[in-house]
Amino acid sequence: MEINHINNRANFNSKGLKYTQKNQLNNEDKSELLVEELNKMSTINNVNILKKDFELNLSHEELEKRTHKDYLTTKKMLAIDAPEYNALSDGDKEALKHLVKAAAVIDKIEMQIDNHYNLAFQKYLEKEIAKGNEDARLTKILFDAQKGVCALDRDSHLIELAKGVTKRAGEGLYPQDLEKEEFHSILIKMLKEGKKDEVAKILNQRSVVERNGDELVAIDYVDKFKEDFEVMASELEKAAETSTNSDFNEYLKLQAKALRTADPMLDGYADKKWATLQDTPLEFTITRENYSDEMTETVYENAELKQLLDENGITPVSKDCLGGRVGIVNKKGTDAILNVKKYLPLMAQNMPFNDKYVQNISPDKESKQTMVDVDLVGVYGDVGEYRAGITLAENLPNDDKLSVKELDGGRRNVYHRQIRLITSDDAREKMQKRLDAMLNPELHKFYNDEADHWFTIGHENGHSLGPNGTDGLGKYKSIIEENKADMVSLSMLDVLTEAGMYTSEQRKQIIVTYAADNMMMAKPTLSQAHRVRSVMQNYFFIKEGAIKISDDGVLDIDIEKMVPTARKMLEEIIEVQMSNDFTRGEKYVNDYFVWTPQMDKMAQNIKKVSKTLNGKVESPLADKLLGE
After folding, report:
1. CA-CA distance, 264 to 267, in Å (whole number)?
2. Got the DSSP string for 26-56?
């Protein structure tokens, strides 16, 4: 779905000025319009002219509310005196400093990927704060939290911190003024002129697209962000000089090499090595996931373009966001998580229609799957964007990466302890109030926040199960994949309980905790893959009688119907994925993405006791290391 902002004063289109109803412009309007027109004209020579000034969008009252602790929750990474840090060797402490410095650079890069105006707006806020502008100071808190000028909050409202600046379907990865129809038209023209190599680069996951006359040109990330990537590479090499783990050091060197040369295969070699890391003291990841780009996969909606792409053997893949994660591996937590590895072949064996596709986990071979529980020092870029939520764990590399597609590499699950842990009495009190507002009291005894972690383990491993090669599903691919991972986790509970992984009590706790946590404060937009899948599941489970939401907005759960219902939904998902058909995927999502009046009533109940709209991350240890 393309989210566009309509400027109420004036817009340019390709044919010239389009005035407001009053057909009048003041000096400020003319200045802004002139800059916008220069932006479009300058793209011919790939010159980037952005707005020189901004106007804050949120009122003082709204800023005070959204930055209050009741509305802006905080996740704290490791403290300066954390025992996990103090226990490291001197060499690993020194390496950690360089890893933090490398990862911090990703914030700057990802902000450019996210929105054309992010960096300019950041500088504007800093100048205004220096002048004593209190609203700018409050806006900067929100900007730093969501790492951008535009983001969705927990209510699925698009929060725009600057007037006239909004989220674009192509993020900062496509020209600011490029609309879907023109995008398709340009690609069709280029393909008819035999420029399939250029189109393939435009539609891959690691390029920034710019105008080149009446065509488009793709620039590889490594070339586009060359200076920043060089800084990162240098810091990784310094870390490799003092880190105590040779496997980890080999990975850092491979990753540094990949940051210096625009060769996707170099990333493949680094990813393959990273996915083997199991017994390392430190954690460093550059994450590359493609949930946010809503432009690339629109090509599946144009029949003529889709046919031309098929004829030329081009498979479009949405563009990657970049994130960074730095941490210290928690041995005790990792050992507990690794317990699931012996059950992965059993899960693979129990996947629906498993004889009709090849999956990453084999029922009869050693699983190429490593897993670590990590105490986080810092999260950056895409990983650290605390918008409607923040990442609990990740299973990488994804199917579109060369380490999986061509190098027969494995995957690695990384779990985020500081994100998931509920450590304060205040947080537990808030959780209980939420349960009181929306869950049948008889089921409260089964709710266990640790069970959410158990469910997440099943979800992340679920990404390694099922069919690969689902790019044909276009913009619905991620929604359906996230749905699949959830249903794998839930549908395998009986199999894993019988095998001894869970007790019958833990099984009930996982079911109830999953269902309660799946309820939301507002209907999401189609761009929120992780939240859309929750609505789809809730609607499906209501239809099957596994859950019920009363007219008063209270959830009841038929525990014994949950696993069979999950299995039924998983079978439907796998069939859609095997079809790899855009139209079928679209119908599947639309059939179940239904927000009922009962869901809305429950959302209102939750909002009465839970005010949180956004969140922020505090990283005291990382901040200290950055200053050294």
Report:
1. 5
2. -HHHHHHHHHHHHHHHHGGGT-----S---B
In the structure, what pLDDT confidence band is assigned to residue 474 with cuts at 50, 70 and 90? confident
DSSP secondary structure letter of residue 439: B
Contact status, residue 335 vs residue 290, Cβ threshold 8 Å: no
Q: Report the 10 Å Cβ neighbour count for 608.
A: 11
pLDDT, greater one: 325 or 5: 325
CA angle 40, 41, 47 (to 5 degrees): 85
Strands (E), 450-592: 547-549, 555-557
Confidence at residue 558, expressed as pLDDT on a 0 to 100 scale: 98
Going 293 to 207 to 225 to 401, the CA torsion angle's sign is positive
3-class DSSP assignment, residue 117: coil
- Copy the structure tokens of residue 582: 């855009």
Name the 3-class secondary structure at 216. Answer: strand
Residues 6 or more apart whose CB falls under 8 angstroms from that of 512 comprise 439, 443, 446, 447, 451, 557, 559
Confidence of residue 11 (pLDDT cuts 50, 70, 90): very low
Q: Spell out the residues 6+ positions from residue 435 whose beta carbon is closer than 8 angstroms to its own.
A: 444, 447, 516
- Mean pLDDT value across residues 30-58: 56
Contact between 325 and 415 (Cβ < 8 Å): no
E-strand stretches of 243-341? 282-289, 321-329
Cα separations in angstroms, 333 against 336, 454, 489? 5, 12, 19
Question: If you search the block for the tokens 């049948």, which residue do you land on?
Answer: 440
Contact between 107 and 579 under an 8 Å Cβ cutoff? The reply is no
- Rg (alpha carbons) of the chain, rounded to whole number: 24
Alpha-carbon separation of residue 239 from 144, 206, 268 (angstroms): 27, 26, 21
Q: What is the pLDDT of residue 3?
A: 29
List the beta strands (DSSP E) in 135-236. Answer: 150-152, 158-160, 207-212, 215-220
Peptide bond before residue 441 is cis, with ω within 30 degrees of 0:
no
Residue 208 and residue 173 in contact, taking contact as beta carbons nearer than 8 Å:
yes
**Which DSSP category does 380 fall into?**
E
Q: What is the pLDDT of residues 546-583, one digit of tens each?
A: 999 999 999 999 999 999 999 999 999 999 999 999 99
Please tell me the distance from the alpha carbon of residue 290 to that of residue 206, in angstroms, as a whole number. 10
The answer to whether the CB of 128 falls within 8 A of the CB of 588 is no
The phi, psi pair for 283, rounded to 5°, reads -125, 130
Considering the entire predicted model, what is its pTM?
A: 0.85
What residue type is assigned to position 599 of the chain?
A: M
Q: Give the integer Cα–Cα distance in Å for 62 and 81.
A: 36
Q: What is the dihedral of CA 593, 598, 603, 609, to 10 degrees?
A: -160
Q: Cα–Cα distance between 342 and 199 in angstroms, integer?
A: 44
CA-nearest of 423, 417, 424 to 392 is 417
**DSSP character at residue 562:** H
Question: What confidence tier does 364 reach under pLDDT thresholds 50, 70, 90?
Answer: low
80's tokens: 């300066």
Cα–Cα distance for residue pair 492/558, rounded to 1 Å: 17
Helices (runs of H) and strands (runs of E) counted in the chain? 28, 15
